[in-house]
Amino acid sequence: MLSANLSAIFYLISGVLFILALRGLSSPETSRQGNFFGILGMIIAITVTFLSIGNFSTGFAIVLIFLLIGGLIGAFIAYKIPMTAMPELVAGFHSLVGLAAVFVAIAAFLNPEAFNLGSQGNIKLGSLIEMSIGAAVGAITFSGSIIAFLKLQGIMSGSPITFKGQHPLNALILISIIVIIYLLCSTQSSNLFWILLAISFLIGFLLIIPIGGADMPVVISMLNSYSGWAAAGIGFTLENTALIITGALVGSSGAILSYIMCKGMNRSFFNVILGGFGATEQSSSSQNKEQRPVKNGNADDAAFLMKNASSVIIVPGYGMAVAQAQHALREMVDTLKKNDIKVSYAIHPVAGRMPGHMNVLLAEANVPYDEVFELEEINNDFANADVAFVIGANDVTNPVAKTDPQSPIYGMPVLDVEKCKSVLFVKRSLSPGYAGIDNDLFYKENTLMLFADAKKMTEDITKNL
Amino acid sequence: MEIDPFIFRLSIFILSIFIGYYVVWSVTPSLHTPLMSVTNAISSVIIVGAIIAGLAGNSEAIFNSSSIFGFLAISLAAINIFGGFLVTQRMLAMYKKKKKDK
Predict the structure, then answer these.
(1) Residue A57 in contact with partner chain B when CB distance is under 8 A
(2) A70 has pLDDT over 70
């Protein structure tokens, strides 16, 4: 049996390894080593836990069985999941962290002796506060992530669900959570503990339903952050350094990602969280919709334009993920490169449904990461490029964000696609994007619209090159 | 007067938030998706709490209300640990540099 001090040191080591795991992600070269550090940290934490309990009886076998069941399911999912489904997977994983936090909190509440937290009905005040915060945040993470998962998977409509009195109701529930935690700590009543869990599940659900599909990058990052704070809350209860360090890391990581995503849309965090974006704008813009002429092209025209270009910038968006066009796109680019045409990719921070979504898809299609650029890195290059090939993106290219202060997306950083000599726009129809506003780019003199499925069109262009 | 151990844990917590802040800002945006999946995996270190809960039952009553929640939490966390690390590895393996021009 390991002494408490020794195991604390080992937990500290695994916390440090987790820091190194995140540090490794600063560049693709070091990232694989970073992931290895993460795995090592996890093995140390789990082994030390077994050794410090030192009870290798029947219970131990059962623990291993449950560990194995979960491990097999996890490994199976990890190998089977297509890269396009990554946002759903991450949302699903968040929900599991949340639920695990809730279960650990319940176990600690029912059997505080096992965790040295006092006895049932007489749990140490500090521990009870930490436990209930961990449980409440965990429950919110769980139900919120479930909704995010359903929306991303398409089981639930991606459009915002709003109703009258939504915000006052949510505020009321949040206040009552605080009141119940206070009462729970003063009475130690187990009924209050269950009520706390129930309304936390409810608020997680209510908080996410009004948020629309394209705001999912913010939601996923936010839930990522919550899952960290839940883990930290439980870490305080268990007095476990590894858990506290990890919780803080994950919590701040998710918070930073949410911030980056909000900045990418020029919207405040609260504006996103309060939800309903898109739904209201759609109705107002449809009134002043006028018929404007667009130039309609086919794969042949597109191939001609690109063949005569010396540099092409590709702007992928969520539509590419939906059409699974990344492989076809890379084949097209290969053909272009054979003709000595310089090709680079421009990624907007909120392209896709989660942070870095487009980068993963392009990496999957064997696009070298040093051809892929972020908005700030590449935005000046559009003026010198011959062709911009916009595939499945819309709002992130809309010049209105720079010119029209009335527009809902005014101030949002956009890719300066219109500065290119010509713009090819692969889209299924002229329908407005998520923000519900018309894209001026469609009607520009130098824009050629290619109305087709992104994958089909890209393949056709390759044939014509 | 002695310092409450809680204060030490709080210090670790606060300092870790700062570490997280600086470390995550240095993560390259193209790796933000692997960042999310790996944070998922590491936050499942919550499994240590689940193991403690699972092993808390005595040998006559391995399954009591508390340990059952522990066992379930072990499985949930294990899905995340294995799934999270493996899917991260799978993604990171795809990030390749441009081949040197021939």
Answers:
(1) yes
(2) yes
Q: Which two tokens stand for residue A341?
A: 């045409």
Chain A contact present for B45, CB below 8 A: yes
Chain A touched by B22 (CB under 8 Å):
no
At A276, the pLDDT band (50, 70, 90 cuts) reads low
Smallest Cβ–Cβ distance between A71 and the set B62, B72, B78 belongs to B78
- Name the E strands within A205-259: none
Q: Once rounded to an integer, what is the mean pLDDT over residues A232-247? A: 92
Tokens of A117: 């937290």
Q: What is the mean pLDDT of residues A215-220?
A: 86
In the prediction, which pLDDT does A282 show?
A: 42
Report the 10 Å Cβ neighbour count for A143: 21
**In the predicted model, what is the mean pLDDT of residues B28-47?**
93
Angle formed by the axes of helices A4-23 and B32-43, to 10°? 170
Q: What's the rounded Cα separation, in Å, for the pair A93 and A84?
A: 16
**Residue pair A228/A250 in contact by the 8 Å Cβ criterion:** yes
Q: Please enumerate in sequence order all residues whose Cβ is within 8 A of that of A342, keeping only pairs 6 or more positions apart, or say none.
A: A310, A311, A312
A401, A409 in Cβ contact below 8 A? yes
What pLDDT, on a 0 to 100 scale, did the predictor assign at position B101? 47
Q: The tokens 């669900």 sit on which residue? A: A161
Q: How far apart are CA B18 and CA B24, in angstroms?
A: 10
Chain A residue numbers touching B47 (CB-CB < 8 A): 45-46, 49, 67, 100
> What are the residues facing A119 on neighbouring strands?
A122
State the pLDDT confidence band at A287, using cuts at 50, 70 and 90.
very low
